Amino acid sequence: MRTLTSLTPTPNAKSPVSLRAVVERITRDEVVHVARLARLDLADDEIDQFTQQLGAILEHAADVEALEVADVEPTSHPLPLRNVVRADEVSESLERDEVMACAPDVQDGQFRVPPVLGERT
Amino acid sequence: MSGLVPCATADTPVEPALPPGWELVVGLEVHVELDTATKLFCGCANQFGAQPNTNVCPTCLGLPGSLPVMNERAVELAMILGRALGCDVNRSVMARKNYFYPDMPKDFQTTQYDQPTNTDGRLELADGFVVGIERAHIEEDTGKSVHVGGGGRINEAVYSLVDYNRAGVPLIEIVSRPDIRTIEHARNYVEELRAIVAATEVSDARMEEGSIRVDANVSVRPHGSSELRTRCEIKNINSLRSLGRAIEHEALRHVDLWTTGSGPQQQTRHWDEAAGRTTPGRSKEDAEDYRYFQEPDLVPLEPTPAVIAAIDEALPTLPAARRAALREATGADADAARLLVERGQDSLAMAAAASGADAAKVVTRLVNDLAVDDWSAVDTESFAALIKMESNGELSASQAKVVLGDLVEQGGDPADHAARRGFEAMDSTELESLLDELIVVNPAEWSRLRGGDEVDRKKMQGFFTGQIMKATRGQADGRAVAQLLAQKSV
Ligand SMILES: [Zn+2]
Q1: How many domains does chain B have?
Q2: Which of B314, B333, B348 is the endpoint of a domain?
Q3: Does B159 score more than 80 pLDDT?
Q4: pLDDT class of B471 with cuts at 50, 70, 90
Q5: Can you tell me the distance from the alpha carbon of B208 to that of B242, in angstroms, rounded to the nearest whole number?
């Protein structure tokens, strides 16, 4: 049985947990997969580093996971707000020239981008 | 319902030629663009056909520091459609669906995931078949990219041009249960959904402008089985005709793969209209992994029971109920009821029948002769009067048709039009004496009609009918002529 005291941040963030715990939380392959999804090109030593750091974060989250929260409403937003809406009224859009000036490549008032292989699915 | 492709036409098979023993299983995902003034999360105009990238702002361009604010009208329209589909309207939260593609400048699409606005509905087709609705959730549309070079095919493109006018336009995605078993029902489902969308004025529902887009989840299974086998999702379907062709192609491909091996792989595929086949989307290595999480910049939507009750109260009579009422009032068959409700002529039909015009004639006349875009000049009273004139023999069927044309163009009193055109009731004695004269002039033809074989008789019936029509300038009632010929030739 864990207690809330285990949620206290570890003072030294560099080596907060043992490698054994890390290995249980996330594998190197999973880090490679997540990096690829985020289009991050990681070096081998970076993969090792992030495997350890992400493992530490997940280990920390696991402490929360262990709490009994069946009767607690999931938090959707830090503030107790709901139904925040605006009226359906048109406001001014940006000048196209201004927008296009920010883009590395344009043609006919459109953003020109490298060909994308394969349709998005 | 302009631009609607008819349900079954000669060049499109109604049902796939699945080998005996196989059953088709289809679920549809339909995206409907909501008819709001602005986008889902910003005040840019939701407008089709504007100059590229003129309806964009920091929010819909995904610029750093911009924040979304929910469009109240979009939420309302989504709930209206949900209730029209018999859904439960729930507390909902928005979520981020993460992916990299140039059509979404934020690198995520804001949608709903595990807590959608609408769940558990149903949609009844014109023939009474019911398709379950799993969910109908709110999300934003993506931008539009055009692939340039290499003949326009995406895999051969030299570069792509992106227009973000559509990025952030409010959509509702309606996900059916895999209840559909025939191509005809798949088409009927989309047609019915369009009719409901139009009736509730949630969207302008123009498939050709992309305001309704359909993806089909297709699988097959042995007849009598209740299992759900591996399915493929077919995208890029742009018309009801493509929908039928794509489902047919995909189902046959599955049967083939099950028959010759271990079946298809679950994947997303694209319908290639020109080639008439589906082609695979991304490889398995690039399989979907959208890492959904709750959108931290938006708060939950929690409609009160009062809000939902008010929506229910304001819902128009939906097509299924209108068809039922029309059939009850006029005895119209399912096809006629579908057609007249689609054209919005059901209230005219019911009012005319209620004022004493022959209900069957009312329905026939409308189905056959009022297939025009603008019939606003035809009022109930004059239409009912016209049908009564036809019923009591003052006008022949063909004359009634002509007068109805006059009503469409000019409105007014059918009796005036009939008089102006010189349409007078031709009584049976007049018709008979005319036939007598024709018999005297054409004795050989008459004896062939009486004594000839079947072919000869048919031919001569046509001859005499033609002569009578010529002599009366088309005013004789075709049915009366046929009756007279039958009586006389015995
Ligand atoms: Zn915007």
Answers
A1: 3
A2: B314
A3: yes
A4: confident
A5: 12
- Residue B375 in domain: yes
Cα dihedral sign for A40, A105, B66, B49? negative
CA distances in angstroms from B82 to B69, B178, B368, B402, B457, listed in the order given: 22, 19, 35, 44, 60
pLDDT digits (tens, 9 = 90+) for B357-401: 999 999 999 999 888 888 888 988 999 999 998 888 788 888 889
**Beta pairing, strands B267-272 & B232-237:** parallel
Looking at B281, B314, B347, the residue that finishes a domain is: B314
* Domain-located, residue A36: yes
Question: Rounded to the nearest 5°, which phi and psi values hold at B277?
Answer: -150, 170
Helix orientation angle between B346-354 and B319-330, rounded to the nearest 10 degrees: 30
Nearest chain B Cα distance for residue A14, angstroms? 27
Strands B232-237 and B22-33: unpaired
Residue B127, both tokens: 């023939």
Sign, CA torsion B142/B147/B152/B157: negative
User: Do B43 and A91 lie within an 8 Å CB cutoff?
Assistant: yes
ipTM: 0.76
CB atoms within 10 A of CB A21: 14
The whole domain housing B440 covers 428-488
Global pTM exceeds 0.90: no
B63 Cα to the center of ligand 1, angstroms: 10
Per-residue pLDDT tens digits for A40-79: 999 999 999 999 999 999 988 888 888 888 888 877 778 8
Question: Is the residue at B15 inside a domain?
Answer: no
Query: How many residue pairs bridge chain A and chain B with CB atoms within 8 Å of each other?
Result: 145
Q: Is residue B462 less than 8 Å (CB to CB) from chain A? A: no
Task: Using a CB–CB cutoff of 8 Å, tell me whether B50 touches chain A.
Answer: no
**How confident is residue B74, by pLDDT bands cut at 50, 70 and 90?**
very high
| CB contact residues (below 8 A), chain B span 345-374, against chain A | none
* Rounded-to-integer distance, Cα A39 and Cα A36, Å: 5
Q: Determine the length of chain B.
A: 490
Residue whose tokens read 């694209």 = B270
Cα distance between residue B265 and residue B269, in whole Å? 11
Question: What's the A69 CA to ligand 1 centre distance in angstroms?
Answer: 39
Establish if B156 belongs to a structural domain: yes
Residues of A in contact with B301 (CB under 8 A): 82-83
> Which residues of A make CB contacts under 8 Å with B?
33, 37, 39, 76-77, 79, 81-94, 96, 99-100, 107-121
Number of neighbours of residue B441 by Cβ within 10 angstroms: 9
